[in-house]
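Worked example 3 (structure in, sequence out).
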């Protein structure tokens, strides 16, 4: 197999250091995550990701715990990394030993091999962990098997740039351009829901709003503590801590959404948030019985702590959605929504718009994907298209949509139930892609697997007045 073209990699959008870390992280997850507990720490001190093996595999024996620090080091081959970089590496090793006690193997992964002097210095560092050095050779070694697709999406013919995606979008909307008028487009609830599933931070501003409210409620409860004594004072003090912890979780979630690191966000959400204990649940009633000022502030705070847990659960659920169907009758704006959702926005490149009418009897989703041409070559398969878009989404730090519009216009919509179910399973490996199918409501049960989430458009609803105003202003 020919060596990879690092010049193509260096020309990818986004910071090359970040892209290198993402590529390395993807390689380890694809090859070894099924053998242990994989965790990503998103450029934190120490290691950026680590894997604790519960089963033996080509990487090592069960029980070993590996951590990787990825450093691009934009230096010519043969040049020493210097004192400053050495100090950062030594500090990262010390931080790992403190934050992840028990880690057995610490791996420095760089593009080029370190000089002989730097290697000797590195391997002499005093640490109980086994130190290892990986380079581009390990990247190329792992660009095979389960990770073969990454060779094409980071170094080859499936590299999708923002310009390429914009061009693909322009071509895909050309047949429907007369029906799509972005100047008068009015977002509706179905679109807002889809944008939340795409992780657009602006659609999750309620996270920050609730965090601010919880901080204010924590202050109010703290002020009212002066009116409470004994065990009730201790319990009321717990409410302050609980409210502030929930506010912090909400702010972290909103911040990470803005950065677009879905690995880190889903990992943090998996920890959940602390909810009121049974003792705290009865605290408002006890405070009211004693006519304490804290009764109202504690009640509000505890209610919003529960709401924070629910809202963070919604974030986890929406970002975990892989495939969703939008149902509507003829003339209710399915195609308008498809074109608008895949349009590029300031912080996200364009998505992919496919037309259900191109799904012919006897064909499969790979045939549909071949309608997309990248660098003069048709995409070979639906997985190739999904993988290419997933890699582009990682580099842009955003989920990107693929929309199959008007699935009911396929030659035989009933034939797509099983392929869509398989696609839903495939998407588990590609968290930066959301697939949306639009179709007429009457065809839903025939064409869709029952497990797929459905959103229904029945009209403008509460957006009717805004839609009318926007139309006449235009």
């Amino acid at each position: 197999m020919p060596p990879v073209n690092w010049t193509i990699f260096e020309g990818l959008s986004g910071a090359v250091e970040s892209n290198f870390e993402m590529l390395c992280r993807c390689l380890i997850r694809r090859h070894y995550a099924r053998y242990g507990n994989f965790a990503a720490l998103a450029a934190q001190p120490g290691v950026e990701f680590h894997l604790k093996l519960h089963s033996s595999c080509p990487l090592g024996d069960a029980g070993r715990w590996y951590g990787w620090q990825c450093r691009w080091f934009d230096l010519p081959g043969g040049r020493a990394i210097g004192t400053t970089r050495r100090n950062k590496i030594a500090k990262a090793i010390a931080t790992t030993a403190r934050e992840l006690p028990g880690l057995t193997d610490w791996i420095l992964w760089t593009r080029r091999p370190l000089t002989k002097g730097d290697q000797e210095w590195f391997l002499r560092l005093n640490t109980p962990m086994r130190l290892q050095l990986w380079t581009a050779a390990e990247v190329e070694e792992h660009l095979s098997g389960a990770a073969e697709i990454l060779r094409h999406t980071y170094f080859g013919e499936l590299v999708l740039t923002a310009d390429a995606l914009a061009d693909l979008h322009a071509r895909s909307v050309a047949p429907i351009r007369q029906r799509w008028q972005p100047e008068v487009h009015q977002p509706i609830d179905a679109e807002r829901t889809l944008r939340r599933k795409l992780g657009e931070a602006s659609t999750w501003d309620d996270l920050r709003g609730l965090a601010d409210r919880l901080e204010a409620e924590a202050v109010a409860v703290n002020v009212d503590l002066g009116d409470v004594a004994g065990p009730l004072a201790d319990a009321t003090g717990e409410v302050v801590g609980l409210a502030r912890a929930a506010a912090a979780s909400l702010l972290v979630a909103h911040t990470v959404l803005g950065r677009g690191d879905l690995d880190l966000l889903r990992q943090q959400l998996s920890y959940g948030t602390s909810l009121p204990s049974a003792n705290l649940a009865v605290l408002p009633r006890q405070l009211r019985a004693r006519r304490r000022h804290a009764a109202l502030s504690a009640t509000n705070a505890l209610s919003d702590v529960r709401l924070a847990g629910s809202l963070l659960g919604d974030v986890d659920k929406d970002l975990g959605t892989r495939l969703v169907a939008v149902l509507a009758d003829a003339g209710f704006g399915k195609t308008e929504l498809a074109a608008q959702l895949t349009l590029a926005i300031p912080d996200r490149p364009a998505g992919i718009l496919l037309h259900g009418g191109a799904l012919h009897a006897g064909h499969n989703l790979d045939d549909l994907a071949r309608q997309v041409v990248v660098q003069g070559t048709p995409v070979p398969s639906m997985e190739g298209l999904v993988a290419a878009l997933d890699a582009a989404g990682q580099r842009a730090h955003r989920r990107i949509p693929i929309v199959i519009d008007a699935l009911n216009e396929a030659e035989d919509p009933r034939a797509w139930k099983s392929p869509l179910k398989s696609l839903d399973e495939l998407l588990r490996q590609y968290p930066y892609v959301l697939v949306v199918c639009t179709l007429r409501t009457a065809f839903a049960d025939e064409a869709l697997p029952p497990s797929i989430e459905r959103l229904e458009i029945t009209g403008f609803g509460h957006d009717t007045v805004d839609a009318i105003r926007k139309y006449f202003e235009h």
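Notes: The longest helix spans residues 231-259. The two ends are 57 Å apart (CA to CA).
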